[in-house]
Design a protein that fits this description.
The chain is mostly helical. It is 71% helix and 0% strand. It has one domain. Helix 1 packs antiparallel against helix 3. It is elongated, with a radius of gyration of 16 Å. It is found in: Cell membrane; Membrane. Keywords: Cell membrane, Membrane, Protein transport, Translocation, Transmembrane, Transmembrane helix, Transport. It is a multi-pass membrane protein. Involved in protein export. Participates in an early event of protein translocation.
């Protein structure tokens, strides 16, 4: 149990960095240029390629982050 209390905050930090990165990269342009303001002005309603992968990764990481937060709450009691 002590191991989990020690390791879980680090896991949450890593997951939060990954989640933030994937969300930033999902901006319209779906690349490093799009994340910092560059990108085209075309509007697309479907996700393709890397944008779709980033979308699914962000969902999975968000779920893992939420589960780790709830786990930390249960352990702290």
């Amino acid at each position: 149990m002590e191991f989990l209390v020690t390791v879980l905050p680090w896991i949450q930090i890593i997951l939060s960095i990954i989640l933030t990165t994937t969300i930033i990269l999902q901006q319209t342009g779906a690349g490093v240029g799009g994340a910092f303001g560059g990108g085209d002005d075309s509007i697309r309603y479907t996700r393709r390629g890397m944008e779709k992968v980033l979308f699914y990764i962000s969902i999975i990481v968000a779920i893992l982050f939420t589960l780790s937060a709830f786990t930390m709450l249960v352990i702290q009691r």
